[in-house]
Model the fold of this input.
Amino acid sequence: MTDPRLDDLAARVPGLRLLTELADLIHYGRDWTRRWGPAPLAVALPDTVGQVQAIVRWANGCQIALVPSGGRTGLSGGAVATRGELVLSLERMNRVLGFDATDRLLEVEAGITLHATHEAARAQGLLYPVDFGARGSCTIGGNIATNAGGIRVIRYGTTREWIAGLTVVAGNGELLQLNRGLVKNSSGYDLRQLMIGSEGTLGVVVGAQLKLTDPPPPAQTMLLALPHMDALMQVFALFRTQLKLQAFEFFTDVALRHVLAHGAQRAIDADQPYYVVAEYDAADERDEQAALLAFEDGVREGWISDGVIAQSEAQAAALWRLREGITESLAPRKPYKNDIALRISAMPAFLHEMQELLAREYPQMEVVWFGHIGDGNLHINVLPPPEMEQAEFVARCERVTQLLADALQRHGGSISAEHGIGLVKRAYLGSTRSAAEIALMRGVRHAFDPNGILNPGKLFEQES
Ligand code: FAD
Ligand code: MLT
Ligand code: ZN
Done:
């Protein structure tokens, strides 16, 4: 090791695995945004809570910034390390620590992937219901830090609903056991909930007690083609009343083109501007009949042009790929991503305003919409024209994002639904949070992390 600070770290944390090779610095220094050049000091891969505490104490002592790191599937730049920070990766702390059948709590280390968590829940005959396309790589720690949502929020809510307890190393190195799995606990501030969505700025999540639930009844998956934008919310209202929905996701014809070009199979002949993947309980014939009736009602109203119901698990997976494969299909183009939220009731009016705004502001750019429309969450991805420089492209998108943020403020929405603020959206935080709220958030940050060593510059601008 050449840097004396790393020699000091290695001496203080015996057995700590440290990576300093350029390829590792690049790999661990960036996330899915790919917008910033990775330049961490090194990567630490602790194996125990004690090691995490010792790293945090060392960082406080020598004022080195730490970047907590999970699967780096984040889309807001929360886990990027560009300024000589130490990346603190939880990837080796990925064990299942136990299961309590009476409390239905699964205890895990924070570096376990979402997929491995699903498997551990399944082994107990139960379900951990947060789910989305990055399940194979993203970690429970990252999900907690971003309050991840995904494709089942409509039924189960976001990560926030499923955390019964957290073990956290705060920014000052203290070990905190937050809520300890209690169902009821009215003993003051809920610091566990404060940690959820804090984007690595308050503490390092090292472990979690996850609530598990009964698996849902058998489901059916339907793909619908819709003739116009208003039909999205009309069909949602119809399906929500007539079916027990597990998911209601949408994408546009532009998204479909990309995902098909990326290897997904065409599942419907219709060529329509909007598509929906709906999943609903189909426990018996009555449920299946209800789905057909809802479909027919939608067709009669002129809101649905065509549809298919998956006849097998493989077909259902193929329909889901059309929705879940979109992010990967766009990634090589380095899209600029907006991830916005509105109340469902505000959605119809907002959609029209947004459509006009995007058409006006991005005349020569391809704009791809998709997302969790049943939760009021839209993902707007803008693709750069081939000849445009990245810097000019981002500057243009940032100007439009300001207009979008203004519109969201008027409609009472949020600039981040589920991806977090990170670096990408911190300039727009004030459109969703008042100055008084941001001042309190900064105060909370200072209380947890007095020396500001955890993820400085993420979520809000660094204080000078
Ligand atoms: P990272 O990217 O490593 O980190 C994210 C943030 O969490 C950073 O600020 C980091 O510092 C912090 N952090 C990580 N681990 C810890 C820890 N142990 N303690 C404290 N802070 C920590 N997100 C959704 O919400 N819904 C979706 O449907 C969805 N779909 C996706 C699909 C694809 C294909 C991809 C690539 C991403 C998707 N995402 C989605 C975004 C991303 O997967 C989530 O934000 C996820 O929660 C990030 O987890 P991670 O482990 O990769 O975190
Ligand atoms: C999704 O819903 O697919 C994700 O949040 C990923 C994305 O927005 O690209
Ligand atoms: Zn999403």
